[in-house]
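Hey, can you fold this one?
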Amino acid sequence: MTATVLLYGYGNPGRLDDGLGPALAREVASRGPGAGITIETGYQLQIEDAALVAEHDVVVFADADTACEAPFELRRLEPRREMAFTTHSVSPEALLGLAHEHFGCRTEGWVLGIRGYSFNEFGETLSPGARRNLAAASDFVHRALSDGSVARNAVRTGRKGEDHA
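Sure. Predicted structure:
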């Protein structure tokens, strides 16, 4: 069984390094991600995205990060219920929680934070440091998608109700 993977790059490309998530998605898409891999982009995560998340075994949310170690950090997500003033934008944990709760899926979630440095101006360019970090993150994600290591954990832990442990 091959697990399906959603790579969701989000952020605002008009705010300099905040566009790192969509830039990663474009870079990985340009390399040909392979079968079973869906690539999406958005300015921010919205509750409607829970349906898309639920259609996959694994989701990797890629976003700019102002505090992680360079070049990037990958961390596993736990689904979470979140009460917020608005549903205009939701956290990756809350979106994963919505997918689990409302669609009955067991999608495994990860966040890939890519270190950025410039966020307080308008412009559609990445800083030199962000470009270096994007290249490292793109190589990592492309390799993980190509060799199946992103999806392997989901299959091993029994996504979609199957136990392959």
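The first strand starts at residue 5 and ends at 10. Let me know if you want another pass with a different chain boundary.
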